[in-house]
Write a structure and sequence with these properties.
The complex is a heterodimer.
Chain A (H helix, E strand, L loop, with lengths): L6 E4 L3 H12 L4 E4 L15 E2 L6 H18 L13 E5 L2 H16 L5 E4 H7 L9 E5 L3 E2 L2 H14 L3 E3 L4 E5 L2 E4 L4 E3 L2 E4 L5 H4 L6 E12 L7 E4 L3 H5 L5 E8 L4 E10 L8 H14 L7 E12 L6 E4 L6 E5 L5 H16 L25
Parallel strand pairs in A: 1-2, 1-12, 2-8, 4-14, 12-19
Antiparallel strand pairs in A: 3-7, 4-6, 5-6, 9-10, 10-11, 13-16, 13-17, 14-15, 15-16, 18-19
Chain B lengths: L1 E10 L3 H12 L5 E4 L23 H12 L3 E3 L2 E8 L2 E6 L3 E11 L3 E3 L12 E3 H9 L8 E7 L1 H12 L3 E7 L3 H12 L2 H13 L5 E3 L2 E7 L12 E7 L5 E5 L2 E6 L1 E3 L2 H5 L4 E4 L4 E4 L12 E3 L9 H15 L10 H17 L15 E3 L4 E2 L9 H8 L11 H9 L13 E2 H5 L4
Parallel strand pairs in B: 1-2, 1-6, 2-3, 6-19, 8-15, 9-10, 9-15, 10-11
Antiparallel strand pairs in B: 4-5, 5-6, 7-16, 12-13, 13-14, 17-18, 20-21
Classes of the chains: A alpha/beta, B alpha/beta.
């Protein structure tokens, strides 16, 4: 390796590749290091739903910035990234949830994000396979889906076009100040190091306030037209995934191949990457509850992945509070694919003294008290 | 959800599975359950035997199926193991039902499937595996008067040629990729074995008018539509073979049947965490078992082709040993071990004689499709470094067959480490995997 890079990005998932591309595009000399192949960690275990969430102002701001940037990027993405603007339908089961639909519509309208309420008739016209008796939905037409492992590869390609070096199959064992040590014994030194290793970030930077949260996914054989929008139960956050408990929520996505991708589940304190049949069963029963016609469709594959979750559900983007040369871009949990592009923009503005497009304070790692020593 | 418990559960209804189930039953196991994907017992090799008149049956098949029929083994046909939700537990799907099967010990006898080696034109209609074509002919495909070329390796080519000819096919060529001297040395070995010799002489006599070319293999399969010229989806019209020295044999044919050995079906073995190893003779992975057929996981046994391709006699005797051991009577298997070892050695000699030549790794051109489910050509795979990368970035092996067809080919072409096995082992209904558990 010839001259030392300005910045090493550790982790070739969607967040690391997005950061590498952004930093390289803006003139930094970047080396990106991935332990396995690009997009093989949590990036491969997400649904690739590009969605603007409304659970906090900060999450909304980051999500919207990111979605706009995905729309810009979409023209440059290769076909195998399967970007598709299918929109989201937040499905309301009853009148109480319909009230929440209207509140959500108002929230988005006040912030000039297009969304329309569908009554039951309009919902069934849009998605005839949903079970009878639902109340309606909020349609967010600007949301999209993407196949994230190939998008990560495309972002890494963009980084190399701007002069970055991309190393794959090279595990990082330690970040030591400005030095990054690899499993093969080599060391690379840089001006600054970005830890964007997802769930692996906490092993390289002890004391990070992130916990692994396991999620299960299942994908069917090809059934074109079975669903047309990303379908999410309205209670996704409020009912299902807000607590610290294990939870499932209905989440179904049409893939451009005609396959249906089914989520979602969240489990803390799981270390086994194997499919958990009890959890998978719960998740699929939730899917059947909304799409009873799924029962006879064939699932061809199930898998799981660990996402890095923070206590306040917002990622860590910015300088490490006590390690001088270390920057963080992790803790995105289930929203890493969506918010990767906004994260990259924010991180690059902070690192390269640009004008941050949104308030960085809610994402600053320093908002948490870090535990643990300098190096475990 | 239906629940079934058995002291010994056997997966696979071919010779090894049948022998294991019968042996476990005769040894006094309280309950033996055999689960198989086909309607009738017999596996691929004895497909259709149960529906023949007893006097027309293959003698070994007849004996084994008769023993199975009179045993107390419970046969669960048309059933597939789709997952292993917990230790000692299998999730099984049938056409209508979902079963949870709990076992005391398990015999895996999932057999093997054909290994495909991609070459230009291998995905054309009527280019198929030798086993596939034989099964289709047994199932009623009219073959009478059709011109069939066979290419690949090993005695199976001759056995299938013989069987197709008996059904009225015109065998235009048998191309054996192994060089003459290796085939001759193997033939000398057979002289020591009267049974095999008789079989071999039978093929030689009945196929005496068929060109049997050693040291030749497929270069490509050309095709032609009657009306639309040579579109890539046209059925095969001629096979082009090479000897690697710039020479070609071109034969017109209606079918090109290829047989580049069979590859152990390891999905269940891997899902249950049993160790596998690379077998250099076979050029592929096999299941690790000890002298009593036990895998690296206590209480789980392996028998037959899934622990390494060994042929019928080997499968039968391994099945008996595994069945006895699984039933808790390993001592009764002691007299069988020496014969099992002889069969395994014989199989190794065969595998060595017909090992695939390295030239076969270079038959495909950049446009040759490797993964048929997802339509992935070789050009998209050559720069990748692992199965995982191929799956994630090209979808190779991610279609409905989940790599069963392209998996063996890709491992042969690129020497990649095997893929991870995840549930479901076979496409399973959402309703099956959603079934509540207590």
């Amino acid at each position: 390796m010839s001259p030392s890079p300005d910045i090493i990005v550790v982790g070739g998932g969607i967040v690391g590749t997005a950061c590498a591309a952004e930093l390289a595009r803006r003139g930094a000399t970047v080396t990106l290091i991935e332990a396995e192949c690009l997009g093989s960690g949590a990036t491969a275990a997400g649904m690739g739903h590009l969605v603007v969430m409304d659970d906090s102002e900060a999450q909304f701001a980051l999500g919207r910035l990111s979605r706009d940037r995905w729309d810009e990027l979409s023209d440059r993405l290769p076909a195998d990234a399967e970007f598709e603007n299918c929109g989201t339908l937040w499905v309301a089961a009853d009148d109480q949830e319909m009230a929440a639909v209207r509140a959500k519509e108002t929230f988005y309208a006040e912030r000039e994000l297009a969304a329309t309420t569908l009554d039951a008739a309009a919902l069934y016209e849009a998605e005839p396979n949903l079970r009878p008796g639902l109340a309606g939905a909020l349609h967010v037409p600007g949301d999209s889906v993407v196949y994230a492992p190939c998008a990560a590869r495309a972002l890494a390609d963009e980084a190399t076009e701007h002069g970055a070096t991309v190393l794959t199959g090279r595990a990082v064992t330690r970040i030591d100040g400005q030095r990054v040590l690899l499993a093969d014994g080599t060391a690379i030194t840089a001006g600054r190091v970005v830890n964007a290793a997802g769930d692996g970030a906490r092993h390289l930077t002890p004391g990070l306030p992130v916990r692994p949260r396991n999620g299960q996914l299942a994908i069917t054989d090809r059934y074109p037209g079975f669903v047309s929008h990303q379908l999410v139960e309205l209670g996704y956050l409020k009912n299902a995934h807000s607590s610290g408990q294990d939870s499932v929520a209905f989440n179904a996505q049409p893939r451009p191949s005609g396959q249906v991708l089914l989520g979602s589940s969240r489990q803390f304190d799981v270390t086994d990457p194997a499919v958990d049949h009890a959890m998978l069963g719960r998740m699929l029963r939730r899917s059947l509850d909304y799409l009873p016609g799924l029962a006879d469709l064939q699932i061809i594959r199930c898998w799981t992945g660990f996402r890095a979750a923070t206590p306040d559900n917002l990622p860590l983007i910015g300088p490490h509070p006590s390690h001088e040369h270390l920057w963080l871009a992790t803790g995105h949990e289930g929203l890493g694919v969506t918010t990767s592009l906004g994260t990259a923009r924010l991180l690059a503005d902070l690192m390269l003294e640009g004008e941050p497009p949104l308030d960085p304070a809610p994402f600053a790692p320093a908002r948490f008290e870090f535990v643990g020593g300098r190096h475990a | 959800m239906i629940e079934r418990n058995a002291q010994v559960v056997v997966i696979g209804g071919g010779p090894a599975g049948l022998a294991a189930a019968v042996a476990a039953d005769r040894a006094g196991a309280d309950s033996v359950l055999l689960i198989d994907a086909n309607v009738d017992p017999g596996g691929q090799i004895w497909r259709g035997e149960t529906r023949r008149r007893p006097d027309q049956r293959n003698a070994t098949a007849g004996d084994t199926l008769a023993d199975f029929g009179t045993s107390a083994v419970l046969h669960l046909g048309e059933s597939r193991v789709v997952a292993a939700p917990a230790p000692g537990e299998l999730l099984v799907e049938t056409a209508e039902d979902v079963l949870v099967v709990r076992y005391g010990s398990l015999v895996i006898a999932t057999g093997a499937r054909e290994r495909f080696v991609p070459f230009p034109g291998w995905t054309r209609p009527n280019v198929m595996g030798v086993g596939g074509l034989q099964a289709m002919v047994k199932g009623g495909l009219p073959i009478e008067g059709k011109r069939v070329a066979l290419a690949g390796s090993g005695p199976l080519l001759l056995a299938v040629a013989d069987s197709l000819q008996a059904h009225g096919a015109r065998i235009v060529l048998v191309a054996e990729q192994a060089p003459s001297h290796k085939v001759a040395r193997f033939g000398m070995g057979m002289l020591m074995d009267p049974g095999k010799l008789g079989q071999g002489l039978g093929y030689a006599w009945r196929l005496r008018r068929v060109p049997y070319r050693r040291g030749w293999w497929p270069a490509r399969a050309d095709g032609r539509h009657r009306s639309r010229g040579d579109a890539s989806d046209a059925p095969v019209s001629r096979a082009v073979l090479t000897n690697g020295r710039g020479q070609e044999i071109i034969v017109a044919c209606d079918y090109l049947a290829c047989g580049f050995h069979i590859t152990p079906s390891l999905e269940l073995v891997e899902l249950l965490g049993c160790a596998t190893e690379y077998d250099t003779y076979q050029g592929q992975r096999t299941t690790v078992v000890d002298g009593m057929q036990q895998t690296s996981v206590a209480g789980i046994y392996g028998a037959g082709e899934c622990i390494g391709v060994g042929g019928l006699e080997c499968a039968l005797i391994e099945g008996r040993i595994a069945g006895l051991a699984a039933a808790g009577h390993p001592a009764e298997a002691a007299p069988l071990l020496a014969e099992r070892d002889r069969e395994r050695n014989r199989a190794q000699a065969l595998n060595a004689a017909f090992s695939l030549r390295p030239e076969l790794r270079r038959l495909a051109d950049p446009e040759t499709v490797v993964c048929r489910c997802e339509d992935i050509p070789l050009s998209r795979l050559v720069d990748l470094s692992s199965w995982r990368e191929a799956k994630l970035h090209t979808r190779c092996g991610m279609g409905a067959c989940q790599g069963r067809v392209c998996g063996g080919a890709v491992e042969f072409l690129f020497d990649w480490e095997p893929r991870s096995t995840r549930p479901p082992l076979f496409p399973a209904r959402v309703g099956t995997l959603a079934a509540p558990r207590d």
